[in-house]
Amino acid sequence: MRGYGMLGIGKTGWIEKEIPRCGPLDAIVKPIAIAPCTSDIHTVYEGAIGERTNLILGHEGVGEVVEVGNLVRDFKKGDKVIVSAITPDWNSVQAQAGYGMHSGKVLGGWKFSNEKDGLFSEFFHVNDADGNLALLPEGMDPATATMLCDMVPTGLHGSELAHVQYGDTVCVIGIGPVGLMGVRGAVLRGAGRLFAVGSRPNCVNIAKEFGATDIINYRDGNILDQVLAKTNGAGVDRVIIAGGNVDTFDEAVRMLKPGGAIGNVNYLGSGDYIKIPRVEWGVGMGHKMINGGLMPGGRLRTEKLAALITAGRIDPSKLITHRFEGFDKIEEALMLMKDKPKDLIKPVVTIKW
Q1: Rounded-to-integer distance, Cα 266 and Cα 189, Å
Q2: Which fold, 153-292?
Q3: Domain covering 2-150+295-350 assigned CATH 3.90.180.10 in the classification
Q4: Domain edges within the chain
Q5: pLDDT in tens, 122-142
Q6: Measuring CA to CA, how many Å separate 108 from each of 101, 104, 116?
Q7: Helix-helix angle 201-210:177-188, to 10 degrees
Q8: What's phi and psi for 259, nearest 5 deg?
Q9: Which end of the chain is more exposed for a tag (fewer CB within 10 A), N or C?
Q10: pLDDT recorded at residue 24
């Protein structure tokens, strides 16, 4: 089979590989809609998770089942399915403890384009199919459904990690596709005033549509100073970090009220340490909680998030700014994520075999 992948740090290209084998609990799927991610760029061009050689990229996709193992109960050949970016081993002790995303080891549920080949191929393997596939709801656009693989669950997890409550003042740092879903997630959880930090006009407009009350443009000055000025020095109850770098935590801690929480879902692709201001963190005793988490994966989570779309609670189709048709367009779509033109939020490639 043919796939597009990481040849080594800083290098990508087309690869020929054997079609993966299907285990008794597993499935083999062919993609019908796939979406490149900034995480792919961190992996290749920053070497964020170390050297990978001839590894097929991609972890966001909707596909058609072509084979299932003899112990798979709920899926069959021909089913159209949403495949979560995180595919835990559901019989692991970590999953039983409620942390399937870390099954076997930290980040162990992140398999695609990390521990094994990803979705940018003619066929891909899904472990524990009954636990990690979800049927594509009837009538749902497969391109829109790709947002349920990573962007929607990751953004909404940011609001969960920050423990957003009714009436909270919230700041979302970074309003790319994940941050935009963080905005929507915070609103669904009851946020009151909501600051969205970003500068690109299309992202700003969608952030407002999703419920942001204030826009903080980092090009207009220090975001901490702007947030404090708008809150009369009080700061915010919750911070969702969906962009920036290891230095972003400094500003987040400084703007956070005692008793507040930070929810980080940003992939920190470089840097050795995170900076936390000692005094503003209450010299270690300020009750300012910092949570960072990989999104939950699995069938139940995907089905519940799909219900938010079908019920009209969220509309992730607004994140898709570039649409391509054809398997050979994967490279072009991925390079968009690398070059990040101003009008980009998220590209999707649809495939007809």
Answers
A1: 20
A2: Rossmann fold (3.40.50)
A3: yes
A4: 2-150+295-350, 153-292
A5: 999 999 999 999 999 999 999
A6: 6, 6, 11
A7: 20
A8: 85, 0
A9: C
A10: 98
